[in-house]
Amino acid sequence: AGQADDAVPDTLAEAASVIQGCRRCPLWRDATQAVAGQGPPEARLMIVGEQPGDQEDLAGRPFVGPAGNVLDQALAQAGIDRASVFLTNAVKHFKHEPQGKRRLHKTPNAGEVTACRWWLDHERRLVRPRVVLALGATAGSAVLGRKVTVTAERGQPIPLADGSIAVLTVHPAYLLRLPDEAARIAEQARFIEDLRRVAAMI
Ligand code: URA
Ligand code: SF4
Fold this sequence. Notes:
The protein has helices at residues 12-18, 54-59, 66-77, 110-127, 136-144, 150-153, 172-177, 181-201; strands spanning 45-49, 85-89, 96-99, 102-105, 131-135, 158-159, 165-169. The protein has a single domain (12-201), classed as 3-Layer(aba) Sandwich (Uracil-DNA Glycosylase, subunit E). The protein is an alpha/beta fold and 202 residues long. The chain is globular. Helix 4 packs across helix 5 (136-144). The termini are far apart. The strands form two sheets. The chain has a five-stranded mixed sheet, with helices on both faces. Strands 3-4 form a two-stranded antiparallel ribbon. A hairpin with a 2-residue loop joins strand 3 and strand 4 (102-105).
């Protein structure tokens, strides 16, 4: 199971169920569960993160941890109702390595992103959002199917083959990691600006 002969899901609910048995890459082994995308099936905006974090892995829901809190606040400030957004990730299982008692996030590699595109592509087909906002380079490469540099393409509408529009911005975890408070405030404002631009497209 879990190979190229996987049945094509007809609904988001079916995808969310079948993904629990996915063996397309090795990441299922060390994770609690797969975290499928969540949100209204008719959402006009899809937001794609990198992969579930520690809290998402345990809860089975995307963006419920610290990065999710940053995203929530920024969405609210941009006038976007989180409940109206379909939230998902490029990779659906939490990749991590132990650091003491904690599980430290590890960036998924290109093979894992490519394997997991099977699921992201089905989510995009089933939701058909008008805009797909990718948070960070991993999400951007999963959405566009090529290598991306966020700084080079940030904030610009990029037409996709299915008629939707991709937009790239930074990942909220990047904002959390900025040590300098002034830089963090400035970058947070830029992030909210990107979300406002997206709000005007949907
Ligand atoms: N970071 C992500 O990219 N996705 C989540 O769901 C949580 C944190
Ligand atoms: Fe399947 Fe994606 Fe999990 Fe890999 S990370 S096992 S491709 S659901």
